[in-house]
Specification:
Blueprint (H helix, E strand, L loop, with lengths): L14 E6 L2 E6 L11 H12 L6 E5 L5 E7 L2 E9 L2 H6 L8
Parallel strand pairs: 2-3
Antiparallel strand pairs: 1-2, 3-4, 4-5
């Protein structure tokens, strides 16, 4: 799990992520920069650049409060949905669906 924060002149979220099976788990490192919640489009773009198309993957993220929630794409819009879990395995079990291509 390597820290991600690609500034390129912009304030960006500090995060790490893992990929296990078909689940991408993003962790907000909460280091005072932009939150993953507020930078999710860029975070997902970073991940796409590293692993390719996200079709078939489900995404969870841990916010700065330590809660895991879900992420889904609705067209070009990224939406969050509450899982409200502190345990990533329980959050994964509650995922709604994979991200469409």
């Amino acid at each position: 799990m390597e820290q991600r924060n690609r500034h390129k002149g912009r304030i960006r979220a500090d995060y790490t992520y893992t990929v296990e099976s078909s689940v991408i788990a993003i962790t907000d490192l909460d280091r005072g920069s932009k939150s993953v919640t507020n930078d999710i489009e860029n975070v997902l773009d970073d991940i796409r650049a590293e692993i390719g198309d996200l079709a078939g993957y489900a995404v969870i993220y841990r916010d700065s409060m330590g809660r895991w929630d879900g992420v889904r794409l609705a067209g070009r819009v990224v939406e969050f949905y509450s899982l409200n879990e502190t345990d990533p395995e329980r959050a994964t079990a509650r995922l709604l669906h994979p991200l469409p291509g």
